[in-house]
Copper-sensitive operon repressor (Coprococcus eutactus), 111 residues
Amino acid sequence: MEEQKKCCCHHGGEISDVEARVRTRTDEEYKKLLNRLNRIEGQIRGVKSMLENDAYCTDIVLQVSAINAALNSFNRQLLAEHIRTCVADDIRNGKDDTIEDLVNTVTRLMK
């Protein structure tokens, strides 16, 4: 993946906008996000192992809570970068529908 200086969000293809949206990430951003997901995946495997080994219920619940916190942190990082790049660029380019898309996304996250 080539290092990008600017956001590269665009709609690619003839499919509906929701299905066709893509985002080229910098190598650094990609690695950070992937590392977070790999850690979360490891935590989930750990919970599975706890269940298989008859771990105490509250110990499992606490680990699941840690996974939820890690996923929330991943979402915050991803959303923050989206706002700094894609949303800001679209607003600068007069694409105000991006604001409504962001509002809808935040609303769905807060359910």
About this structure: The helical segments are 17-20, 27-52, 57-92, 97-109.
